[in-house]
Amino acid sequence: MPSIVTLTLSPALDCATSVAHLCPDKKLRCSEPAYAPGGGGINVARALRNLGGKALAIYPAGGPSGQHLSDLLLAEGVDCQPVSTQAWTRQCFNVDEQAHGQQYRFILPAASLSAAEQQQLLERLQALETLDYLVISGSQPDGLAADFLPRLLQLAREKGARSVLDSSGPALQQALQCGGLFLIKPSLSELGALAGEDISDPEQLARVAGQLVASGKCAVVMVSLGAQGGLLVSRDGIERIHAPIVRKVSTVGAGDSLLAGMLLQLASGASLSEAARYGVAAGSAAITVSGSGLCTLEDTQRLYSWLQQQPPQNA
């Protein structure tokens, strides 16, 4: 199977807990915390592992929190190559409020990377013998060199890899300016911010995504639409994939699971349409899992079987 490598520039040690009520000023007694590795590319690698696939996770890691993150990844059986950093890896918190069934996600700033540490990440990727898919997922830390992303994408091109980007804001804009991307996976709001317009109807959504493909900046756009599924846009056409109805428990890692499902199928030789459907199934499966558990193979296969019975939907 082609090699899949994920790069996470802003990893996190995720802590999940719950409280009876959220209210100001009082001490809030929390449940026993559960820790999990976090960050876009790390979650993609974890979800691929859950689905029976394999990816190498490369990421910066510093301090006890970074070591804890790496230990958790190894315990899950995820191949990883951390690059040691001076700054401690951040922690993030997911809190379930039991009284109203709401989830609150507290995202702390990412640890900064020195120029030397950024160079080490590039050298780690350059040293890989094979690189078929490079997945750049998650936010960027403050202080990242202006030429880091262009150098990263150039490195992928030189190694013959397909670049997959799941980010937003300036990182997404800069990557598209570089061009040559294989796949991007924006949410509806991220795509609207990129286009500079509020996307309010399916026709507008298809037009905005289609313009990105027509420009040659990327070959495939997979717009994640949450509980509504996703929109697949490529030169082969446009397909709307409606997600199966599931009971929402946690949204943590749903988009990462979607991307992992797509990559697993593409690496196995599936068509874009088949891969997108499997991705939506994996994303829907992740929603049914508490904390940072991501998708399971059993739930993904069950939901994918349902999706296979649905006729293709044009946008």
From TrEMBL:
Xref: Gene3D superfamilies: 3.40.1190.20
Enumerate the Pfam families for this protein.
PfkB
Q: Which InterPro entries match?
A: Carboh/pur_kinase_PfkB_CS, PfkB_dom, Ribokinase-like, Tagatose/fructose_Pkinase
User: Which keywords does this chain's UniProt record carry?
Assistant: ATP-binding, Kinase, Nucleotide-binding, Transferase
Name any one GO molecular function. 6-phosphofructokinase activity
What Gene Ontology terms describe where this protein resides (cellular component)? Answer: cytosol
Q: Where is the Carbohydrate kinase PfkB domain?
A: 24-295
Family note: Belongs to the carbohydrate kinase PfkB family.
User: What protein is this chain from?
Assistant: Phosphofructokinase
- State the species of origin: Pseudomonas pohangensis
